[in-house]
Amino acid sequence: MKKTIVSLLAAGALALALAQPVFARGSEEARSKVLRVGATPVPHAELLNLVKEDLAAQGFELQVVEFTDYVLPNSGLIAGDLEANFFQHLPYLQSNEEWTSKLAAAFGVHIEPFGLYSDKFRDIADLPDNATVAIPNDPSNGGRALLLLASKGIITLRAGVGSAATPLDITANPKNLSFRELEAAQLPRSLQDVDAAAINGNYALEAGINPTKDALIIEGGDSPYVNYIVIRKGSENDARIVALKQALLSQKIKDYIGRTWSDGSVIPVF
Prior knowledge:
270 residues; alpha/beta; D-Maltodextrin-Binding Protein, domain 2; six-stranded mixed sheet; five-stranded mixed sheet; elongated
């Protein structure tokens, strides 16, 4: 009897051991059909949600994971919690060595023109001397804000500094502006505390700010700050990413952007 029980237990253990690779394969196959994309809400998550059915038709389940900051989507992608993210432009991606070494821009989708806004003044000419201007505290977007001001002659930057500009690179500041560096997501809420704030397009839209109507100054459609789908290096040919590219770079999405942001606050690049 004792031998019979031992034999049965051994057989059961063997069967379980043999079954485990099958379960693992099934689990892996299921995971390979899911595409988790981290995104900020507007317009990124909004656009992704529009193509869920398109990916489902190709056998993939698109899961949109929303973030309200600019750091966690890259951390989650590196950690393997996401297969892609959608919120950033190349200067931001390239501002961190770990991101540059492990992540890659798969394809560009749109531009959100960056603008300078104020709750106190309606024209850039009214911005007074000694005004306080809030700008993003991450290097790429802080530099973008300063480049915008420089392009309108409000400040002058050291020659050749480009998107790496910081307030230390200002060589002429006729209005004696002072700069307050804040997290990008906090900038819309800072408007009541400063004279003006340079705000990323997605955060302006989320706050109910109309970039083309409310901005004192704004980038043009030739802005180099295209928003990309970003992936881990080596996954460029992943069938899920290929399907996402086909769905996002479609006439359906171009038409939706044109209808929803006809004022030019979101501009497709395809």
